[in-house]
Amino acid sequence: MASRKAAGAEPGRQRLIRHKGLRDLIMNRYLYLLVLPAVLFSIVFAYLPLVGLAIAFQDFNPIKGIFGSKFIGLDNFKFFFRGHDWLIITGNTVMFNLMFIVTGTICALTIAIVLTELGKNLFVRTMQSVMILPNFISWPIVGLFSVAFFTADTGVINRFLSSLSFGTIDFYTDAKVWPFIFVLLNIWKTAGFGAIVYMAAIVGIDKEMYEAARIDGATRMQSIFRITLPMLKSTIVMLFLLSLGGIFGGNLEMVYSLVGDNSFLYQTTDTIDTYVFRSLRTAGSLGMSQAVSLYQSVVGFILVVLANKLAKKVDEDSAIF
């Protein structure tokens, strides 16, 4: 009798598991309705455009469209990888973004810790408002102001160097100086806004830990290195992984706003995005441009997955997925 009951209960349990997702959908239908606009937005603007990846493998003709253009396999990729330019372009892209991530994280953390340690006063509130302002200034505006600083004869920097009897720098023909300029401008533009995230994380740390450390005789610096930074580890790793997703992004707006199509500077300023944009304007081949963009996206995705696995081994709570 007991075996019959167990046998009869087993199919019912299987049916319960089989329809568990549908039952959850019905029970929480109003919550799913709230999510529906975001899901539809992602499908329309993030997943449906993936059909356009087929252009990378076609001799694309806008008149014939995606489904009517001739399939040419990997010929568009051969155009990009046949020379040594792709190594320089990829190296510049990765170098810039790594420097942006490292320096931006260090500066944002430093600003957040310093302002938090200063407490809540008029100066701190004013600085919080001032330091996020550069984030809302577009790169084309920054590019217009940069001309006044970097022009060879009348630029502010060269005039200052001349007044000190130093040699002037021809910024728009000297490719070596631009990686440092890009890093400094990126810090100026993004570090203040990034500090807001870390300040919010620092505020969430239990204050009793600092009080206990102060009773034990810990200095402010010891509290920062023994409490604040370890408690921010998960936030730092998570933001690093999110930033790593764009490590193959070429910062098109920044580079073009500051140097444009200056062939003297290609050696250190040409990135994947600028190469794609320039080739699209000059060669007019959508297929070759899409092939380079696909290469950029695939490698960036692989890097994020590998970095996430590494983060999960070090600290499972720090991983994104």
TrEMBL record:
GO terms for biological process: transmembrane transport. It is a multi-pass membrane protein. Keywords: Cell membrane, Membrane, Transmembrane, Transmembrane helix, Transport. SUPFAM superfamilies: MetI-like. InterPro entries: MetI-like, MetI-like_sf, UgpAE/MalFG_permease. One of its GO terms (cellular component) is plasma membrane. Pfam families: BPD_transp_1 (PF00528). The keyword Plastid does not apply. It is found in: Cell membrane. Residues 90-307 form the ABC transmembrane type-1 domain. The keyword Cell membrane applies. Its main location: membrane. The chain crosses the membrane at residues 30-57, 94-115, 136-157, 177-203, 224-248, 294-311. It comes from the Bacteria. PANTHER family: BLL4140 PROTEIN. This is Putative aldouronate transport system permease protein.
